[in-house]
Amino acid sequence: MYTIEFEPVGRRGQCPEGESLLDCARRLDVDIVSICGGVSTCKHCRVQIVSGSVSPPTPEDSATFSETQLKENYRLACTTYPQSDVKVLVPPESLSAPQRTQVEGLELRVEPDPAVRCLEVQLSAPSLETPEPDDQNLWNALKETYALNQGRMDLKVQQDLSSRLRSLDWRAGVALRESEIVAIGADSTHWIGLAADIGTTKIAVYLIDMKTGETLASRGLMNPQISYGEDVVSRIYTASKSGENAQKLQALLVDALNDTIVDLCSELDMDPSHVVDAVVVGNTAIHHLFLQLPVLQLGMSPYVPAVRSAVDVKARDIGLRIAPGGYVHLLPNIAGYVGADHVSMLLATGLDEMEGINLALDIGTNTEICLNCRGRMKSVSCASGPAFEGAHIQFGMRAAAGAIEHVRLSGERVEIQTIGGESPIGICGSGLLDVIAQMRNNNVIDSSGRMNTHPLVRTRDGRKEFVLVERSDNGDITVSQKDVRELQVAKAAIRLGIQALLEDAGVTEKDIERVIIAGAFGTFIDVESAVTIGMLPPLPLERYSQVGNAAGTGARLALISRTARRSAERIAAKDGYIELASIPDFNRKFAAASSISWTTAD
Amino acid sequence: MYTIEFEPVGRRGQCPEGESLLDCARRLDVDIVSICGGVSTCKHCRVQIVSGSVSPPTPEDSATFSETQLKENYRLACTTYPQSDVKVLVPPESLSAPQRTQVEGLELRVEPDPAVRCLEVQLSAPSLETPEPDDQNLWNALKETYALNQGRMDLKVQQDLSSRLRSLDWRAGVALRESEIVAIGADSTHWIGLAADIGTTKIAVYLIDMKTGETLASRGLMNPQISYGEDVVSRIYTASKSGENAQKLQALLVDALNDTIVDLCSELDMDPSHVVDAVVVGNTAIHHLFLQLPVLQLGMSPYVPAVRSAVDVKARDIGLRIAPGGYVHLLPNIAGYVGADHVSMLLATGLDEMEGINLALDIGTNTEICLNCRGRMKSVSCASGPAFEGAHIQFGMRAAAGAIEHVRLSGERVEIQTIGGESPIGICGSGLLDVIAQMRNNNVIDSSGRMNTHPLVRTRDGRKEFVLVERSDNGDITVSQKDVRELQVAKAAIRLGIQALLEDAGVTEKDIERVIIAGAFGTFIDVESAVTIGMLPPLPLERYSQVGNAAGTGARLALISRTARRSAERIAAKDGYIELASIPDFNRKFAAASSISWTTAD
Prior knowledge:
The structure is a homodimer.
Chain A: E1 2-7, E2 11-15, H1 21-27, E3 46-51, H2 59-64, H3 67-71, E4 74-76, E5 86-89, E6 116-122, H4 134-146, E7 152-153, H5 155-167, E8 171-177, E9 180-186, E10 192-198, E11 202-209, E12 215-222, H6 232-241, H7 243-267, E13 275-282, H8 284-290, E14 311-314, E15 327-330, H9 340-349, E16 357-362, E17 367-373, E18 376-382, E19 403-410, E20 413-418, E21 426-427, H10 429-441, E22 457-460, E23 463-469, E24 477-480, H11 481-505, E25 514-518, H12 520-524, H13 527-532, E26 544-546, H14 550-560, H15 562-574, E27 576-578, H16 586-593
Parallel strand pairs in A: 1-5, 7-9, 10-13, 13-15, 16-25, 18-27, 19-21, 25-26
Antiparallel strand pairs in A: 1-2, 3-4, 3-5, 6-8, 8-9, 10-11, 11-12, 14-15, 16-17, 17-18, 19-20, 22-23, 23-24
Helix pairs in contact in A: 6-7, 9-14, 9-15, 11-16, 14-15
């Protein structure tokens, strides 16, 4: 009997000797596509073995995968048999229920004023009488039409200039970034921009119309670096070990973005070369891994970033395939564990411009929180851990089809709602918040989190568990005492972060006028449940607002507005940083914050 | 019997069946190093077969060369036997007499004010109390020490920043280009710059001290593109045929520069990463081939450059290995056949600042001439051809050891001077000018260039030839009637160019107050001989000055002076261009200009 873990769904279970990965996945309700029914003819059930050992490749595998893929342990799940505990990555295309990654966020409320302008010009063909060099010819036309002074032209654009102008019959569309020409196309070219929010676990990608600011296409995907560790600390460790590792981690991100750009562009009947600008945000570690900046010092006290400032790099210098001369802009970081995604979230929510006392937080594997107390901004980062993503929770899973996302308990009656309305296969973060809040409300657990006697609480192998869903086929879905403890630790970190900011500002919870909850996870939680378990302060519910992926929205803003880029710089410079681990009396406060009954200190 | 041609010496001769390349080279006085005496033990006589077929590689070849080298037809000359007419490239290291390429030029007379400044700073190590991000830490120190505002930092510098600052114990030397940090080293780093003049045939490379402007090392080498044609037209044709060709031609130049940088740096006990800035000049075609810009339109009417403006590119974008963030600056071009090297020459000679009527010319395979007539500057380009480099001349060769460079004839007595004082093996350009001038002075040829009866003129195979050196072993060195004709065509192009500029300005030859002769070839010619054969106007000799490689000097100036870069822009914008082929009555004028007696029209 081996333990098998399916990523990115985050589903774990037992697999008896002799059971194929496909059968095991089905039994655990991981919905791998298999049209032929497991007789290895449809070749759809492709998976990657991330760790552990399995049966050797079959002739079907060899016929299906390239040499490189075989070396990277790609297999057909239907003919692969575990020979140890195994971690399996199910690529998106092999999953029948589309992975649910939040890309929606706030609407963009700015007048487009992008760093890259898109202009049309008409040139005159050169002749022996006026043998105008091609570059001068173009600059002259830009001067005549737009009163622009001569600037620079990217080398790749220069290398293509003469043939391009001639094939376009001297009528061209020009993408001008500040004073540099970064692309030339037909005068009718529809220029687009890329915004990406790279989270530790998930990535949100947007393609934006550079003229209108409209979001033309978007997609959520998993961060492929997850195969190198669920949290950033293990990735920092991996990247620090060798330049090769750092390069591999960087390439994983860029390859994922490149593939997504190709897909989204083809949906729009466009080409990646039409993407003339890009903005990427992420936490400081992701930011550094993406640019292949040094990360060793991020993992050691005093945890300083290599680079705090906003960065502009040629996309080609990091392998991102967009327009030949296009740049990638990265918003500034604040500190080692408060990064560009936090700045982006603050930019999108407008927290820095609010009057009074306001709080914004982006809940995730790391939760960043910012308090704007009458114009004075301070941020804190809390290691809330991956419990909200389903990790370390017995029946935990990510927010994918079949995940229990909402729970109501009345006496012995349990009501659940699953994502996609499908049969329940596990519990995602918002479901976990709900069930534990309901358990507390119904006195299934006490304020310390200990399970009481209750008709739905049973003891198995000497351990108490709460039966959430009874199932005849695959066994029941339960919440263990340990699951409750995991959640307590995660929520305590967040509550303590809020508390630290308030103490630093000399105000109390009840003074908070508004709490903005950002991020994919935060969008789907029941705020009342979060308050019940003491993750968030017990404020009137109308003071809370859930704004979706605000970091992604900030990236989109910075893509289409130079004003937004300047605002981000101002926010990063203005926002102070508190090191949570260095607050006095940390351990006692942490213990207090982990209490389920701990509602307010005010 | 096969014809063998040895490059870069430019020596041709016959090779009987069964004679090795080494023996053939020795017989023709091409001085290939062979310490073992041709028994293939010393492995010094390495050559590359550029065209034609030879005996297959021997076991000695396999032991000496890499697979790639063998595929590129590298062989030991001592065990290689021609099987057809063969063109052989003798690499510099296999030549005993160092190739003589002029790198000397005018002294630099400017106060250094380079685009790249070299600064030293002391930082404070970050702590938990002041966890300053590394980039901010550096900018703060630059602000404190030099009152500099924060600018940008190259990505490669950022990628190395954290480990570099720590290994240097927070004391660093910074190379700052305008507002961008392009390199970081020890505070004691000796930063240097690269200047290169890439000619159609020869390349001059200089390493310059960025603080003092002093030339620390220099080297002349052959342009390896010569294997794709002696003139730029054939290289334009080759590069236009495919992107692969264009890339190959580009890589040849960059590889040659990279190798030279490594060599020169090691002479100075430095490292290529200390080279923080570079300036490259060349004619428009070379400029375009070096940047892999489109050249097809350069070869077709109306012969327009893709790029006229000065160009700044990251060295890494074209494969040049200097400091990680270093740039290459290319001076502006003027027209399709008047390029950045001409601008550089004008910059170095200061022609644009001279009062009155002054002429400057750089004689080469293409000869560019500029007339500054009372502040009005016009240039012309003449296809003078490769005769001055020894091509198409029976005993012609480049200016290498053993070349006859000066000749005096009195009656039947010939006096010669060879380069390096070695036994004569051929005639280089300056020797050819001399001998034909002497032949005219002694009435061996008439004003039309036809050979008269003379004791030293003999007839062989029905063709007249002038015996310059009698040799018992390798046959006599002679000048043929055809050689005279070749020189007449070359010199006519130059004289006609001068004439066209004067006519355009409405002045005459005698009005010229000063003639500046630039370029390696121009430095070694006897001006009196050049006047005698009618290549240059018959002005008092004191009006002529020979200034060496002025294009190289201009490149060095632009490297250490931003003022010089601005001057170059001004010169390029100011200098007009005359298309020689479009002047009225071209053919008649050309015929007149080819007369040996054609001294002046004034």
